[in-house]
Amino acid sequence: MKKLFAVCVFAMFLSGIHAQNIIDKHYQHFVDADESTVVHVAGLTFQMASNVLGEELEEEKEFIQSIQSFDLVAMPTIDNPREEYKAAVALIGSDYEELINVKEKDGNFSLHIDEENGTVYEVVGIAGGNDEFVIFSLLGQMDLDQIGDMISKIDDQNFGALKDVNLSKVEEVKVYPNPVNTANQFTIDIPDEMIGGKLIVVDPSGAQVKSIKINGNKENIKTNDMNPGYYVVTIENAGVTIKKKVLVVR
Questions:
Q1: Residue 9 CB-density burial (10 A; 0-12 exposed, 13-18 middle, 19+ buried)
Q2: Which residues does residue 69 pair with via DSSP β-bridges, in sequence order?
Q3: Statement to judge: residues 18 and 61 lie in one domain
Q4: Is the Cβ–Cβ distance between 119 and 127 less than 8 Å?
Q5: Maximum average pLDDT range among 7-16, 104-113, 172-181
Q6: Same structural domain for residues 124 and 239?
Q7: Does 165 share its domain with 225?
Q8: What pTM, to 2 d.p., does this model score?
Q9: Which of 153, 170, 187 marks a domain boundary?
Q10: Cβ distance 150 to 138 under 8 Å?
Q11: pLDDT of res. 15
């Protein structure tokens, strides 16, 4: 996981303090295991980050300033990594919102966020392949719009189901305007790889209100029959699922 550990080194120049995360709460037994790989990066000062990154990385500075800690635990010897993956996804349940899900023959990967009003307090990545289970946590007060760029930095050749997937495509999926009026429509920008797949809109109660085939790089969804509230827009194709939220208002 060379690239992922590079992210850890990059994160050593963060500002903040270490607080309890998903690994602290539920995976201490893996942290304590002799065969596990464990990474913990606590936040330092933003001034140190500024000295290291330079003026050309202003956006990165802003993002890492909002992070409190990065933690990862990998179990290379585990009886059934795929079942452990399923158990982890079930464990976080409705407390976290799924942002992306990748299913491939070599394993599964999903990314989940604890988000409220555009602020992400924790990002949790879970991977289970043929021979390894990995879970990581990024803790802080992060901008939801910057998470897609962060995902592209975790595209790791050895991270199970991630190896053939360019997760930076998450950043290309945009929903606008957001919020959108009930008498209007919103547009979704869609990467080439997702064309031919399916687009689903789910209302705040969890009911599916729209389902269409994706035919191009832009799809327009009318909102005249949608009540105010947060909706989840899901696009899926070839085992990859990406989710975005849109707020409908009067």
A1: exposed
A2: 42, 139
A3: yes
A4: no
A5: 172-181
A6: no
A7: no
A8: 0.70
A9: 170
A10: yes
A11: 34
Q: How many domains does the chain have?
A: 2
d(CA 98, CA 242): 8
69 with 152, same domain: the answer is yes
Strand-by-strand arrangement of the 218-222 sheet: 174-176, 185-189, 218-222
Count other C-beta atoms under 10 Å from residue 54's C-beta. 10
Q: What do you get for the CA distance between the two ends of the chain, in Å? A: 47
Alpha carbons 38 and 35: distance in angstroms, whole number: 10
Give, for 147, the enclosing helix (H) or strand (E): helix 147-152
Amino acid at 113: I
pLDDT of residue 225: 92
Domain boundary among 170, 189, 224: 170
Domain enclosing residue 139, as ranges:
2-170
| Beta-bridge partners for 236 | 198, 241
Residue 138 and residue 131: Cα distance in Å, rounded? 24
Burial class (CB in 10 A: 0-12, 13-18, 19+), 17: exposed
Considering the domain architecture, whether residues 110 and 181 belong to the same structural domain is answered as no
Q: Taking 90 as the threshold, does the pLDDT of residue 22 lie above it?
A: yes
CB of 125 closer than 8 Å to CB of 109? yes
Looking at the structure, tell me whether residues 164 and 207 fall in a common domain: no
Q: How many helices (H) and strands (E) does the chain have?
A: 8, 14
Same domain, 34 and 156: yes
pLDDT tens digits for range 171-213? 678 899 999 999 899 999 998 888 999 999 999 998 999 999 9
How many C-beta atoms lie closer than 10 Å to residue 108's C-beta?
20
